[in-house]
Design brief:
By secondary structure, the chain is α/β, with parallel strands linked by helices. It folds into 3 domains: 87 residues, no CATH class; 123 residues, Nucleotidyltransferase, domain 5, CATH 3.30.420; 130 residues, no CATH class. Strands 1, 2, 3, 4, 5 and 6 form a 6-stranded mixed beta sheet that branches. Strands 11-10-7-12-13 form a 5-stranded mixed beta sheet, sandwiched between helices. Helix 2 crosses helix 15, helix 2 runs antiparallel to helix 16 and helix 3 crosses helix 4. The relative contact order is 0.11.
Length: 434
């Protein structure tokens, strides 16, 4: 084991010195002058003559400390040699790699580069540009494992009745093959019943992409069964239903416009929004006359219903679905709504905060090719097999790509946990502080 010669100044640093030099053998020493070298100098690689100690070379890192590395000289040919100091470079690499992992985690939580720089002033000052370069370099090196065999399924429930007895129909539908995996009736839909149903019909050891509605029990149930194999997507169709229910049946033009702005977070509703904005500007001409205003409102809402019906027919004739927004566009629409959240009604505020909380689970379909965003197939299956009356949804491309990659890394538990805390890492440098 390396010989460490302590002084009164570094006696308390023995533990840190052992962490640094513990991997070296008994032929090395750390002197009272703070020089790391071999006790017996090596043989000259040129003339094979034993070398002698010849002072040291300091290696300094601003803000961390300085290490003195022993130097040797050949008395015969005069050549010099410096002791290996790769351990010092490894210490710095470990610290700065941990910083990079820290930057990734902060960027995942949408902390700006300026914000990270301000935060690092409390730890180890790093400029915005340094953080930006380190983050992008690290993201370029990251590779995301993609499982081509991930099982994509829809899960939903229906509540039919057998006479006066309430029954619960639990269904799993294969998203790719559009076929039923399981469809069973139960007396209850308790968490334990759902767990047994899922365990029976899905392999918990394989990755699964599952689409559900917003039942508050599902996240805990699914996480318990599939653990890190789970990709949980919330149904955008159910979200739109919740948004519509947040507004009164007889809405004003202003309320209708706000409703469609919420509906346009994940779907392209720009045509409806433009039409409503035009109506809103026309409303200013009659708003001061109560009688004319009431008559105008009825006419305006009728025109909007006819226009909306016309758009639906056009989509159906083309045999297309309502186009979904890109991840970038969805984030932009959502951020614009959040800017003025305080002026909205309480129900709208709660809905926006709910979307913010579940943003990842609402956008996971962007990250897997062919992944579904809604439970429409299983709803269609229900409507055909047991109808309702018989049962009684970055400024640059690179930024967007990095954001997607971060989210995938988070889902796959690739956002690394530190081997050592910052305090432990900085303590390694304490014996060498300037």
């Amino acid at each position: 084991m390396v010989t460490i010669n302590l002084t009164l100044n570094n006696f308390s640093e023995l533990h840190a010195l052992l962490d640094v030099f513990g991997c070296f053998g008994n032929d090395y020493e750390y002197t009272t002058r703070g020089i790391f070298r071999r006790k017996i100098p090596p043989v000259c690689s040129i003339c094979n003559t034993p070398m002698v100690h010849n002072g040291y070379n300091p290696h300094t890192k601003d803000g961390l400390g300085e290490i003195n590395i022993g130097r040797y000289k050949c008395s015969n040919c005069g050549s010099t040699h410096e002791e290996d100091y790769s351990f010092w470079e490894d210490m710095k690499t470990l610290l700065f790699d941990t910083f990079n992992d820290f930057f990734q985690l902060l960027r995942y939580h949408n902390v700006s580069y300026d914000g990270i720089s301000d935060l690092m002033d409390f730890i180890y000052p790093r400029s915005r540009s340094t953080i930006f370069r380190a983050f992008y370099k690290e993201m370029e090196q990251e590779t995301i494992p993609y499982s081509e065999n991930i099982h994509m399924v829809h899960y939903d429930e229906q509540h039919p009745k057998e006479g006066r007895c309430q029954k619960y129909r639990l269904t799993l539908l294969d998203a790719k093959a559009q076929r039923t995996i399981a469809d069973e009736l139960f007396k209850d839909k308790s968490p334990e019943t759902i767990k047994e149903f899922l365990k029976k019909n899905l392999d918990a050891s394989e990755p699964v992409f599952i689409v559900t509605d917003f039942d508050k029990r599902y996240p805990d149930i699914l996480k318990e069964i599939f653990r890190d194999k789970l990709v949980h997507q919330y149904c955008l169709m159910h979200l739109n239903k919740l948004i519509v229910n947040d507004f009164p049946k007889n809405t004003t033009i202003e309320q209708e416009l706000l409703k469609y702005r919420l509906l346009s977070i994940f779907y392209n509703r720009e045509n409806e929004i433009k039409f409503l904005q035009k109506l809103q500007s026309e409303e200013l001409n009659v708003i001061n006359n109560k009688e004319k205003h009431q008559e105008w409102i009825k006419k305006a809402k009728k025109e909007f219903c006819q226009y909306r019906h016309k758009l639906k027919l056009e989509i159906r004739r083309k045999k297309e679905n309502l186009p979904r927004n890109s991840l970038e566009k969805a984030k932009y629409n959502f951020d614009k709504l959040m800017e003025n959240i305080r002026i909205y009604d309480e129900k709208v505020q709660k809905r926006l905060w709910m979307i913010n909380k579940h943003w990842l689970n609402l956008t996971l379909f962007h990250y897997l090719p062919g992944a579904p965003a809604t439970n429409n197939p299983i709803e269609s299956y229900y409507s055909k097999s047991l109808k309702t009356d018989n049962k009684k949804k970055f400024r640059t491309d690179k930024g967007i790509e990095n954001r997607i990659k971060l989210t995938q890394m988070r889902r796959l538990n690739l956002l690394k946990k530190p081997q050592k805390s910052f305090m432990e890492l900085f303590r390694l440098f304490s014996p060498f502080k300037l």
